[in-house]
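Case study 2.
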Amino acid sequence: MPAEYTNLEKQRLEKLEQLKQKGIEPYPTRAQRTHTSRQAIEAYEAFERENLGEAPQVILAGRLRSMRVMGKITFAHIEDGDGRVQLFLRADEVGVDAFESFNKDLDLGDFIQAAGEMFRTRAGEVTLKVKEYRLLAKAITPLPAAKDEIVDGQIVHHATLADPETRYRQRYADLAINPEVRQIFRTRAAIVRAIREFLDAQGFLEVETPILQPIYGGAAARPFTTYHNQLKQTLFLRISFELYLKRLLVGNLERVYEIGRDFRNEGVDRTHNPEFTQLEFYCAYADYLQVMEMTEAMIVYVADKVLGKRILTYQGVTLDLNPPWRRLELRQGILETTGIDFQAYPTTQALAGAMRNRGIPVDPNAPRGKLIDGLIGDYLEPTLIQPTFLYNYPRDISPLAKSIPGDPTMVERFEGFIAGMELCNAFTELNDPLDQERRFLEMGRDYDSEDEQRHPMDEDYLRAMRYGMPPNGGFGMGIDRLTMLFTDAPNIREVILFPHLREREEE
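Prediction:
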């Protein structure tokens, strides 16, 4: 309970008590609804179009969003999950007491149920002529401030909530008053549904792997740590599904995928949130070139299903998703944007010197792989606007990928970029257990315990590999970032229902 109610909340609490004194339950157990707002309007339009005998009789339910009292009649709007519909109340039809109670006891934000006959007003709006109504839930706290707009000659009140931090902290209010926000999350759900359709049709099996893991791995990230009291065991929230999904390939599940939450104890910015949704799939007998083609096909399929188009605008930039996407070798991309050929500098010291010579800041404690990763993120990535596959990466930063034949310093890896943002990451997966063990040892030796690039030794994963793992291609993609692209959202927090935020300091 709030420490102190506002004056408006106190007024609404008084109304709530008055309703109870009248014998009206402000939060009844049962509700009725025969049509959504859209269904009711469509039913009336069909009645007009087909010249049916009687206008539809309906029961609607929703949140009261506007009221306009005009003597013995009242116009109002209620909103449900499908949209808005106008209500028309006349004192001599609903009863004088009920009419006065509607105008005096109800407030914007209350949920009500209304029954009656659909008709069209002189202004042309399809409307419910209310015969009776019922309160379903009294709203004590008013929705955020509203602005007025004239629609078809009538005043309609639109609630607004512009402050981003307040919107994220009170997502329930944000959703209640901003239909465009509700649409973002409908689009997000459609994206996930379309991805499942695509992968299921390709013969993939959806699986679930542990969120609490005794050893974290599969990505370069710092984990969240927790403790199981009964088992007396330190556990980690997963940073990736990879090592568990690849165990399933050993067990002859040849095509597997998972859509779920990953957790990374990292910074928060416009494309990063500590808790995010990831798609990963692994396909036996495929390599990174085949996964590139599958990625293009999947994104196009999702765009067709969700948007109905393959050319979209993101933050004012037109993006063409039609395949084939541009292929750019990482070495060439870094050379073009920085003037540095990293393969000409095989040691950390040599690469750091080349960077300093070009005025590029250097972290003196960073190993060579991390320096290359910085060149990608700071200089190359922002230039990759149209869909691009950046491919062939240094082994230093890809400990789970298979080496390029004839070049043990490079691996078969690609990342997909759109609008200057990394969308996906994929490998021809390493399936040699002896090579994998050597790489785990290298990462443990070359990176300190606090470095996110450090991959701990996973003995059970190595044991699984020693049973024999088929050659395979693996893929990971952030669902949140794809949703950003498809909804033109500038910040990842716009597409996560309850993003993580710092605690507010007490004033």
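The longest strand covers residues 57-70.
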